[in-house]
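This section describes the prediction task in plain terms. A model, or a person checking by hand, is given the sequence of a single protein chain and must write out its three-dimensional structure as a string of C-alpha cells. No templates, partner chains or ligands are provided. The sample shown here is typical of the held-out split.
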Amino acid sequence: MVVSHPVDICNSGQGSNSVSRTEPDKNLNEYLQPCQVLARIRAQYSVLNQNDAYFKLEKFTMNNLKTTVVVLLSVTGALILSNIGYAMELSSDESRVSLVSTKVLADGTSSAAEVFTFNSLTGSVAEEGAATVTIDLQSIDTGIDIRNERMAEFFFQTSEYPEAHITSQVPVSALVPGSHMLDLDVEVDLHGQQMSYTVPVMVSSVDAKVIVIAREPVLVNAASFELQGGLGKLGELAGLMHIPATVPVSFNLTFTR
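The expected answer:
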C-alpha cells in the first residue's frame, strides 16, 4: 500500500480527485478530514492577514490625514499671521473725518447744517494693534475759504494747537481677514485737552487694506476741549444767533500694508 501523507496531499492541491494509493477510496477518508481542517486554518489565516493588512493601511491613511490637517492648519495660521504681522499706514486719499456743524441764523427762526471735512490725515497701526491718527487742523475744509481761516485761527487756535491726535488699541483678532463689529476705546487729544470715547466700529480687512468705519457718529462737545470761546467768536464774526456746541463726528479710515 502506498499512500501520500495528508499534508502532502493538501500542499499538492490534491484532494479526493488525485491521490497516490493502492487501496480502495474508503481509506482516503482518514486523510481528507485533516486536509479539510488544514484548509480551514489556512483560510482563517488568510482572513487574518487581510484584516491585518487593512488595519495597517487604515492606520497609515489616518496618520497621513492627521499630518495633512496639521500642515494645513499651520499654513493657514502662517498666512493669517503674515497678514497681521506688518505695520500699516493711513491712506489719506482714501480716508475721511467729517463733522456736521449747525448754525442758527440771526433771525432766530431758521437754521442750517453743513458738513466740514479735513484734507490732511496721517496715521498708522502697529503690528500689535496700536493705532494713531493725526489730523492737521489747518486743513479743515468748510467750503468757504474765509471760514476755513477763521476756524483755524479762532476756533482751533492752530498757531498753538496745530493738530488733533487720536489713539486706540485695535485687537489683533480684528485685523485678520473679514469684517468685525466691536466697540473701540478711543483717546482724543485736542486743544490741550484729553477725552475718552467708546465708539462702535466695523473693521474690515480685505487684501492689503484694513478699513475702520464708525457705525454711528461720535457726539463731541466743544466745551470738553475748552473750545466754546472760539465758537462764540465764530458766531459773532458770521452774524449768527447761535452755534450749537455739540457736533456729530464721523470717520472712515483706510490703512494699507
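For orientation: The helical segments are 6-11, 29-84, 145-155, 228-238.
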